[in-house]
Structures are given as C-alpha cells and as structure tokens.
C-alpha cells in the first residue's frame, strides 16, 4: 500500500517549502501553494535559476491566508522576520511568468525592501488575485496559482532512491528530496498496473492517470521536466555541482526535450489530505517517453 509520507506547500514561488501534517487540496493545489511570487520591479518572476538565494526565504502563511511571515534561513546575517498583513484590495499589476502575463497584487514597500536586501537585487512581492483564472494544460486540464505549470507535483521515494543508486556509480553523494520541490511525497507505488502487489518501482508515478488520496482526487497532466533549480542547495541558497542533472541526463531524457523526474497533476476533486493517507490508483497509463 502506497501512502503519503510528506506534504509540502510553497507559499512564495521559488522560496522554501513548509511541511504540514494535513492540509486542504484546493483546485489550485495545496492550500496557499505558490499564492505569492517575488518579481523584479518590472514584474518579471524571480527564480532560483537566477536568484538561488530565494531558497533562504522561509515563508509561513496563516491558515486563512490573511497574514504572511518572511524569515531568513540565516538570521545571523541580520535579516529579522517580517510579519505582513496580506492585502487583496490593492491595485492589480501585470506580472510575467515564463513569458505569459498574469495579474498580481503588490504587497507593499516593506516586503519589497526586505526581499531586496536579502536577495541583493530590487524585488517586489505579489499575491494571486482572488479573481485569478489561470488554465493549465496537459492530459488533465486544471488551474494553479503561480506554479510553473500544474497544481501538484508528486514524487516517490523509490524514484529518489534509484537516482541515488545511479549517482553512486560515479561517486556522487545522495541529495535531499527538497532539491526537487515536490508537493506530495509517497513511499512506494505498485510494481504492476493492477492487482494487489505493491513494491518500490522507480518512476511508477509517471504512469498514474487518476488517483484518490484522502478526500481528494488527482488527474495526471505531464512529466516534471527538471531545470537548474535542482542544482541549488536548498539549505545554503547557492548552486552546487552538476548533480542531479548530470546523472538524470544519462537515463531520464525526454523525447520532447530536457530530463524528467516526478510527475505533475491537476486537482480533479478538492479535499483534505494528510500524511499517512493511502494513494489509491484508479487508472494507469503508459509512461510518456
């Protein structure tokens, strides 16, 4: 039986995640996931690909979303925690995410100054407007906040363990799961597409097409194409060596381009999720290549 072993939400896109024991899965993903985004003064999204120090920002958001706290992973550097009252009534502004234009609500000069000082580059903080109506693509269409694409990223420990085995073949040490920034981490998946045999088959999440977890249901959208964010040490906020992309390039190349690791899903039915919930696969398909 496969179960959820970790749930992680990322309130501010590109910043550190927060592990939770339970949460509500909304149509746009785990509660508050990627509902805020750091942008340049021109409104262009910031990413760890260019600004790895984003990983040092530890955001926490209240259950009702009315307040946000930004803390630094290196408080000794003089960056104290900043507590913000979230505004949804301020004027909207255009923001750029992968060349697409969306709207954002600027969260004020205090947040901008705090982020600018920590990142070392002029920055603003925006929030998804309540009227945000983004459509995401893939096999199962859906919506999301400021996530790269689909609302939910699922990754299994079996896939990470297999990557570590491959990396060890040329002397590379293992990496933390947080390099891949998943939302839902599961402990194993079935060895076959049906029946009662459960095992630890790497990358079986690639073949899930529909799954029920807790009170919620997910529908597969696409494979997760990996980028240079996986090279960033999430604790140090700095780029490390060539792993994991060097090893993934040897066995996880995608025919459409890039390397893949993990799978993306849209929310078919919202509901409560908890660590320990069973992952009940309702439909399987062939892995994309």
Would you write up a description of this structure?
The protein has helices spanning about 110-120, 155-170, 245-250; strands at about 5-10, 10-15, 20, 20-25, 30, 35-40, 55-60, 65-70, 80-85, 90-95, 100-105, 125, 150-155, 185, 190, 200, 210-215, 215-225, 230-235, 240, 260-270, 270-275, 280-285. The chain has about 290 residues and is mainly β. It has an 8-stranded mixed sheet with strand order 3-1-14-13-21-18-17-23. The longest helix has 12 residues, at about 155-170. Residues about 190-200 have low confidence and may be disordered.
Task: Break the fold down into its secondary structure elements and pairings.
Elements: E1 4-9, E2 12-13, E3 18-20, E4 22-26, E5 29-30, E6 36-39, E7 57-61, E8 67-72, E9 82-85, E10 92-97, E11 100-106, H1 109-119, E12 124-127, E13 152-156, H2 157-168, E14 184-186, E15 189-190, E16 198-199, E17 208-213, E18 216-226, E19 232-233, E20 238-239, H3 245-251, E21 259-269, E22 271-274, E23 279-284
Parallel strand pairs: 2-6, 13-14
Antiparallel strand pairs: 1-3, 1-14, 4-5, 4-22, 6-12, 7-8, 8-9, 10-11, 11-12, 13-21, 15-16, 17-18, 17-23, 18-21, 19-20
Can you summarize this structure?
With 289 residues, the protein is mainly beta. The chain has helices spanning 109-119, 157-168, 245-251, and strands at residues 4-9, 12-13, 18-20, 22-26, 29-30, 36-39, 57-61, 67-72, 82-85, 92-97, 100-106, 124-127, 152-156, 184-186, 189-190, 198-199, 208-213, 216-226, 232-233, 238-239, 259-269, 271-274, 279-284.
| Computed Rg | 19 Å
The gross shape turns out to be globular
How much strand?
Answer: 35-45%
What is the N-to-C order of secondary-structure elements (H for helix, E for strand)? EEEEEEEEEEEHEEHEEEEEEEHEEE
Largest sheet: 8 strands, mixed
Strand order of the largest sheet: 3-1-14-13-21-18-17-23
Based on the structure, what is the oligomeric state of the protein chains? single chain
- Global structural class: mainly beta
Poorly predicted residue ranges: 192-199
Helix content: 10-25%
| Average pLDDT reading | 94
Span between termini: 27 Å
Tally the beta strands. 23
Helical element count?
Answer: 3
């Amino acid at each position: 039986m496969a179960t959820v072993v970790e749930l992680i939400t990322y309130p501010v896109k590109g910043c550190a995640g927060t592990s939770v024991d339970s949460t509500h899965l909304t149509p746009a993903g785990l509660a508050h996931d990627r509902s805020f985004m750091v942008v340049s003064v021109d409104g262009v999204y910031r990413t760890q690909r260019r600004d790895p120090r984003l990983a040092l920002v530890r955001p926490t958001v209240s259950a009702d979303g009315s307040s946000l706290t930004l803390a630094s992973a290196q408080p000794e550097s003089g960056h104290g925690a900043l507590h913000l009252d979230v505004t949804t009534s301020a004027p909207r502004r255009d923001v750029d995410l992968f060349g697409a234009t969306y709207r954002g609500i600027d969260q004020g000069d205090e947040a901008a100054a705090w982020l600018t000082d920590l990142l070392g580059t002029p920055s603003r903080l925006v929030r998804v407007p309540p009227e945000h109506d983004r459509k995401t693509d893939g096999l199962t269409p859906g919506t999301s906040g400021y996530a790269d694409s689909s609302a939910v990223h699922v990754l299994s420990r079996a896939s990470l363990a297999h990557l570590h085995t491959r990396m060890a073949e040329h002397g590379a040490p293992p990496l933390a799961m947080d390099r891949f920034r998943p939302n839902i981490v599961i402990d194993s998946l079935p060895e076959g597409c049906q029946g009662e045999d459960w095992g630890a088959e790497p990358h079986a999440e690639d073949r899930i097409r529909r799954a029920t977890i807790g009170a919620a249901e997910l529908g597969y959208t696409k494979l997760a194409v990996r980028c240079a964010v996986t090279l960033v040490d999430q604790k140090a906020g700095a780029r490390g060596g060539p792993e994991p992309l060097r090893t993934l390039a040897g066995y996880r190349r995608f025919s459409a381009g890039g390397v893949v690791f993990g799978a993306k899903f849209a929310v078919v039915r919202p509901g409560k999720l908890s660590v320990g919930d069973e992952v009940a696969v309702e439909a399987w398909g062939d892995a994309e290549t």
